[in-house]
Here is the input.
Amino acid sequence: MLSPKYKLWHLLPFAVKYARLRLTRRPVLVNFEVTMRCNAACGGCDYWKTPATERANELASFVEAARAFDPMMITFTGGEPTLRRDLEELVAEVARAVPFCYITLLTHGGMLSIERAQRLWDAGLDSFNISLDFLDERHDTQRGIPGLVAKILALVPEMRSRGMAVRFNTVIRDDNLDAILPIVQHAHARGAGVNLSVYTDMKNGSKDHLIRGEQYARIEALVGDLLTFKRRHRGVITNSDWYLAQLPRYLRNEMPEPCRSGETTIHINPQGIVRRCPDFPADKHWREYNGYAPINCNACYYACRGEAQAPLALSRFQDLIA
Ligand code: SF4
Ligand code: SF4
Here is the structure.
């Protein structure tokens, strides 16, 4: 589970909770978008254009929604959540209110010092998900934050030495195919994890880094390498085997099945309004959530789409136990 806070016996209450949530058709993972503001400047995302004045419209607490959904997993995300100076309090009250819930933070890491990471860990985080698309300065360029990759690579071993669980969130793009396996190996060497997804133009229409047709053969080879790595070292790559194996099929546009986002995974924006996935408009207050029907959308292959389709296979349990 990539968190030393949990022991093997915790799998039982988590499994009971999972069964209850699936039977009652409630989301397993709730993403709290605590702010849409961001101080990076990624080409494929416009959140950083959110005016600073939006701060006044952000919920002061997410605990009521957390208690009502009582999910198995909660992610604090954004925008850039560490811009919220009260993030420690937001995490702490949710951690106190929801037992047996795996709480993570998704951050670009640019403002994460070891002291702040420790405070967030003590507040109740179970893991840090740090965005990392390259192991060199290309990462700084694409995020618009000088010195970012050096900072992350220095910080992670320090966090690991204090027992904090860390995972890299890595987007597979047209220009980082050479970096994917090295990122996985880097994570493995430092006791960290990696979660992979694929670049989409859904966020702001930028097609700059979509995987191109002539790269499909490289993607197939990469997926083969990733699955081989997973079989040798379970617990590093957190995507299911099924999700990885379907990547070439998605890229070749051979995935006709509807998207089931919004069923097991939802996003709640800074005003408390729900959306089925991070790239669809928010449409109802969280109190009015009653599920989303499957939708014919093929715009992305995020985990909220791909993992929702994944069958419950033996390899999933092997991942979980590892
Ligand atoms: S992708 Fe993340 S880090 Fe980049 S601008 Fe969007 S919210 Fe900020
Ligand atoms: S495929 Fe699903 S998760 Fe992706 S953008 Fe469309 S609705 Fe959202």
Notes: The first strand starts at residue 29 and ends at 33.
